[in-house]
Amino acid sequence: MILNRRMLFAAGLAHFMMPVSGAEATGIQAITGTAFGSTWRAVLPQHSDFQTARNLILSAIRETDATMSPFRSGSEISRFNDSDSVEWIRVSPATATVVSAALNTARKTNGAFDPTVGGIVGRYGFGPNRKLGKENYLGISADRTGLRKSSSGLTLDLCGIAKGYAVDLISAGLSGHGLANHFIEVGGEVRGKGLHPSGRAWRAGIERPAPGDRSLHCVVETGSLALATSGDMVNSYVVDGRRYGHIINPSRGLPVDTRLASVSVLAGSAMEADAMATGLYALGSEAGPDCAAALGMDALFLVRDGAGFREIMTGKFASYVLR
Predict the structure, then answer these.
(1) In 3-state terms, what secondary structure has residue 189?
(2) What pTM does this model have?
(3) 115-159: per-residue pLDDT in tens?
(4) What is the secondary structure of 74-104 as a DSSP string?
(5) Helix 93-108 vs helix 50-68: angle between axes, to the nearest 10 degrees?
(6) By the 8 A CB rule, do 164 and 274 touch?
(7) Cβ(291)–Cβ(109) under 8 Å?
(8) CB 220 within 8 A of CB 201
(9) pLDDT tens column, 152-191
(10) Ordered DSSP codes for 108-131
């Protein structure tokens, strides 16, 4: 299970946790495991069919990893990347769906989210791909069963969106097997369905993006929405006083260098939240909020301001925050 490039923090939960304590912990049970170089967690009402839930989760993780992992040589994405052909290459409907969603996010963010920057990601040590194409996402075409590149050097990296797809796949599978009330977290991306056994909506915490600080910045009542965060505090390294993160600024061909510490996005699907959080983070502390506002996205931007953080919220994000 090696899809995610976050190999340096396999034990980390990125920016999310679901705070459960006191009386509200009654009536729930969690199952956990590893996935994509990180972890997964499912919270379900007690007396649920946990074996069925575990099997569904592991199946979704295996499917996503086998088709979309750039670290797995036999995956569909790796075969596409290794090919020099500019003809249509057949892929599964799942891969075609995720690539189409990635291209849609690229268009919405004017290329700030670009699934063709994997070669640059690899150059800075965050992935296996070293192939540098001369074009961008505009050179990729996708239909329901196939992908095509306009030049042989183009490659795809879906690590900024495929984990969200896996969360959606798990959630749909659980709902389809009668487990309508559940909360899923995979590598920090979360989605709830139904209600917490106490009768309230599901909640998730957003961590304060500061070194060595695992405290919560705020708690968000997500309900049945998905929540994803992108930032540079976890999957990054420092050389000569400069931090290099895994998120690339496509217009510069360099890791994002910004006062923006993190972006959290609420959306109807984890796939959308995952990709939009990455794209908005790549846009930075000024263009990011402008883009989110123009798109009507519910987002929280935490901008470094001295020793603390300045909040910028767009859309209806503020209405979901519980202080």
Answers:
(1) strand
(2) 0.88
(3) 998 877 777 666 667 777 778 999 999 999 999 999 999 999 999
(4) TSHHHHHHH----S-EE--HHHHHHHHHHHH
(5) 70
(6) yes
(7) yes
(8) no
(9) 999 999 999 999 999 999 999 999 999 999 999 998 899 9
(10) HTTTSS-TT-HHHHHHTTSSS---
